[in-house]
Design goal:
mainly beta; 9% helix; 22-stranded antiparallel β-barrel
């Protein structure tokens, strides 16, 4: 029988490496249960870094990798932690509905300021998330801490020909620890700044020897935030979450089955302002035609409401009606692997449910004008069947069928407060009036895929894959109001809501479209010698149209109907070209991989402005909505590696050069300073601006991650403390530096330009562990030098102050005690 390690190494070097690799790492299929148990123990005892080394050396496509040992020692618990150890990945975590993961700069908001209208419910993301061999489509399923990690991988380029769902720029692939037949329990306690406490429990062992094993992991993460509200005392950007995962692993003669149940919840103050923005001063908007608004924000607050400005300190807000941001998710999956002679048949079944209840504040300065809240409910079902050929054959292949059904409902509402009537000069706009927009979206996807690697000889191999996906998209949007029965009358209340930015009554009706998406890859690889592996990739990726949950009717100034914004966009297509080389030197002590890529994406789904409709006077009506942009280009360079210059010292490094440029984007929405009010005798503001041949903002050209890990045997250093302290121990330490280049935060047409200067986030830790790994004690720090980069900037307008996007975490110190009980 071939060993599990051999299967791992093979799968990491075959085409479609990442999904197949995690499939193998998650569950070994053996002809005999006893063999499976032996391999399970062997993998559990594999030296730290071995899987990372194997992956980096043999993967035929550009990848990033973090193993379990590094994640444990360096306290990597959130996706943002892992982004500092792999190239070209930014999870952009804030809360479950505002998170927009980005690979190579591409997400629904990163890289372009005006793509935020893409609702995460109903959209198809360019980046995917695979957890234990299951593709989770909605970003809310990425919430929670990763406390029982086996591996974290970043797969770059179009995905889907080896399993899962199709994506256009890459996948995040996470594998958790599977049940073991070796009885073990680990308890971990951490204390950190801001009264933070993290408790973790990880228990595994046999239920029936050699047949049935279990694993239960749980965590509790609670602590104060670092921004204190001056009204209620609430601490924003805090930690308040918990989760539990239970697993069963059954091994039979020819069958292996893994059942996973996951539940997580959080209740955190993460929705201050417009998702973690804060005021830094009065508005100072200057229109591009050289004029100024009639009044500033502070003048309007004084004139309309008769109230003073209480603060322009982003870290000392005076929020009104601030509340926690509630989220919970349930995920259940089952993976059955059945050995049929020399072939393996796999069935992967999954169900997930995610619920978010937003509770945004009305606003800063103790004002109560209005608040916008988004509350989605998402169900996902998926079923996949795979058939894999034997390994070590001239032609090795995987083929399968994949199906997914997503049913999503969301409510977006605007609720008006006590200051709304005076602010909008509408007496009927009383506190409690509410404009609601309910949207429904359904996705049904079924796909067939196949991928194979043909070994021409020991050095040269060709990997080719093809996937065809048929999808049905259904959507609808319905707008309605909550009014008072005996106040001001129906029509005045409706008019007041419209004046306050609410939408009119409408119902788009149910609409559906079908899409046929084709993904294909050609991935040749040539092993020149034991030190050089050359690889190339030509790939076509495609994702179906997105459902525009913000679709609404187009009305003129007299509320006459002119048309509808599109409810479902066109599909998006990418062509990806890459060439790279994996190198290892100095008897495998130095591994350095390099990859160049060029990607063209057509019909990119983003916001654009339509001015084709006119009112009764012939004046154009400007309306912005989710549509398709003709062409954008991504090109860049990525590298990743590790070096062992001295015994027990490992240096890791990775980085990327990323240039994203609009090539055909004629109808972009102008920034606020290009939308000046019309005045007699002055030129009218442009309805649209062309962004063609301009670079993306919010995306640095260069980013680097560098780290060092060192451990040193100390022998029985604590034996003088008494009996039981004579066990040998090892000291360890690490430091990681994540640096990124200066970043443009403003539209290139804006009058005022703002760039975030280059910055580096430094994380470090020191600790000692017993050589039998029964005990570990460490102290650590994240963001050692308290860098607080700005992620957005706005000069404000007559209705809003100047603001910045706040960093997610200041400097944090902590200590951790880990005890293995058996």
């Amino acid at each position: 029988m071939r060993s599990f390690l051999s299967a791992q190494r093979y799968l990491s070097s075959s085409g479609g490496a990442v999904i197949a690799y995690v499939f193998a790492a998650g569950l070994a299929v053996s002809a005999r249960a006893q063999d499976a148990q032996i391999e399970d123990v062997r993998v559990g005892l594999e030296p730290a870094g071995r899987r990372e080394e194997t992956t980096l050396r043999e993967a035929p496509r550009s990848v990033g990798f973090v193993d379990a040992k590094k994640a444990e020692e360096q306290h990597l618990e959130r996706l943002s932690d892992f982004s500092q150890l792999v190239p070209n990945y930014r999870p952009n975590e804030s809360n479950p509905i505002a998170s927009r993961p980005a690979i190579r700069g591409v997400s629904s908001t990163v890289g372009q300021l005006n793509r935020g209208s893409i609702n995460p419910v109903g959209a198809e993301f360019d980046t995917g998330y695979v957890l234990d061999n299951v593709f989770w489509k909605y970003a809310g399923f990425q919430a929670g801490d990763l406390v029982d990690l086996a591996s974290f991988e970043l797969a770059l380029g179009p995905q889907g020909t080896a399993g899962g769902k199709n994506t256009t720029v890459g996948n995040v692939v996470v594998s958790t620890q599977r049940p073991s037949f070796e009885r073990r329990a680990t308890l971990e306690t951490s204390f950190a700044s801001y009264s933070r406490i993290i408790e973790k429990l990880n228990v595994t062992g046999p239920i029936i020897d050699d047949r049935l094993a279990y694993r239960v992991t749980a965590y509790f993460d609670k602590g104060d935030g670092w921004i204190r509200d001056q009204v209620t005392g609430a601490s924003y950007l805090n930690n308040d979450r918990w989760g539990v995962r239970g697993q069963l692993l059954y091994l039979g003669e020819d069958v292996a089955d893994r059942l996973i149940f996951t539940y997580g919840a959080q209740h955190e103050y993460t929705a201050i302002g417009a998702y973690t923005t804060g005021p830094v001063g009065n508005s100072f908007l200057v229109y591009a035609n050289g004029t100024l608004p009639a009044r500033t924000y502070a003048q309007n607050v004084a004139l309309r409401l008769g109230k003073p400005i209480l603060t322009f300190d982003p870290y000392r807000p005076y929020e009104t009606n601030a509340g926690g941001f509630g989220e919970r998710h349930l995920m259940v999956s089952n993976e059955l692997n059945w050995t049929l002679g020399r072939y393996t048949l796999s069935s992967i079944t999954a169900f997930g449910n995610s619920r978010v209840i937003g509770n945004n504040p009305f606003g800063n300065q103790e004002l109560e004008i209005n608040v916008g809240v988004f509350a989605p409910l998402v169900d996902q079902f998926s079923q996949e069947f795979r058939l894999s050929s034997p390994k070590d054959e001239r032609l090795e292949w995987t083929t399968g069928l994949y199906s997914l059904y997503e049913n999503a409902w969301s409510r977006t509402y605007t609720r008006f407060g006590a200051d709304a009537a005076a602010w909008y000069n509408r007496p009927a706009l009383q506190r409690g009036l509410q404009n609601n927009r309910d949207s429904k979206s359904r996705t049904f996807s079924i796909a067939g895929y196949g991928q194979g690697t043909y070994h021409i000889d020991e050095a040269f191999a060709l990997t080719f894959g093809l996937r065809d996906s048929y999808e049905i998209k259904e959507g609808s949007v319905f707008s309605w109001d909550q009014l008072y029965a005996n106040r001001h009358g129906f029509a005045p209340q409706e008019a007041a809501i419209r004046a306050g930015g609410g939408q009119p009554f409408f119902d788009t009706g149910g609409q559906s479209k079908t899409f046929n998406s084709v993904t294909g890859i050609f991935n040749p690889q040539y092993k020149f010698n034991d030190n050089l592996l050359f690889h190339a990739l030509v790939a076509r990726g495609e994702k179906s149209g997105a459902i525009n949950n913000s679709a609404q009717p187009i009305l003129d100034g007299s509320l006459n109907f002119k048309g509808w914004q599109p409810l479902i966009t066109k599909p998006e297509t990418s062509w990806d070209y890459e060439i790279g080389v994996n190198t290892n030197w100095l008897d495998d002590r130095l591994i350095a991989n390099f990859n160049f890529y060029w990607s063209d994406i057509y019909n990119f789904q983003t916001s654009l402005t339509d001015a084709s409709y006119t009112d009764s006077t012939g004046q154009p009506i400007r309306t912005s909505y989710l549509g398709n942009v003709g062409h954008l280009r991504l090109r860049g360079f990525e590298f990743v590696g590790r070096w062992n210059p001295l015994e027990r010292l490992w240096l890791s490094f990775n980085g990327a050069y990323t240039e994203a440029r609009w090539l055909d984007y004629a109808n972009a929405t102008p920034p606020a300073d290009w939308i000046w009010p019309a005045t007699a005798g002055s030129p009218s503001a442009p309805l649209t601006l062309s962004r063609s041949n301009t670079r993306w903002e919010n995306l640095p050209l260069w980013s680097f991650n560098v780290g060092a890990n060192y451990d040193h045997p100390l022998g029985p250093a604590f034996r003088d403390l008494g009996p039981g302290w004579d066990r040998p121990v090892t000291g360890f330490g690490y430091v990681n530096v994540a640096w990124q280049d200066k970043t443009q935060l403003t539209n290139p047409y804006s009058v005022f330009q703002f760039w975030q200067p280059p910055f580096a986030i430094v994380n470090a830790g020191l600790g000692v562990r017993s050589d039998d790994e029964r005990y570990s004690l460490s102290v650590w720090a994240k963001n050692v030098f308290d860098e607080r980069p700005i992620y957005s900037w706005s000069p404000g307008d007559p209705s809003n102050p100047a603001t910045i996007g706040l960093p997610s975490q200041p400097r944090v110190f902590g200590g951790t005690l880990r005890v293995r009980l058996m």
